[in-house]
Amino acid sequence: MISSPSAALRKRAMIAVAIAMVLALVPAVSTPAAASTQTTASGTVVQAQATVAAPNAEAQKKSKITVKMVKKTVAWNERVRVRIKVKAPGVARPTGLIKLTAGPYTYYTTMKKKHKGALVFKTPYYLADGKYKVKAEYLGTAKIAPSKTKKAAKFKVKPAKISVSFNF
Question: In CATH, which of 2.60.40.1940, 1.20.1070.10, 3.40.50.12780, 2.60.34.30 is domain 7-20+59-157?
Answer without folding.
Answer: 2.60.40.1940
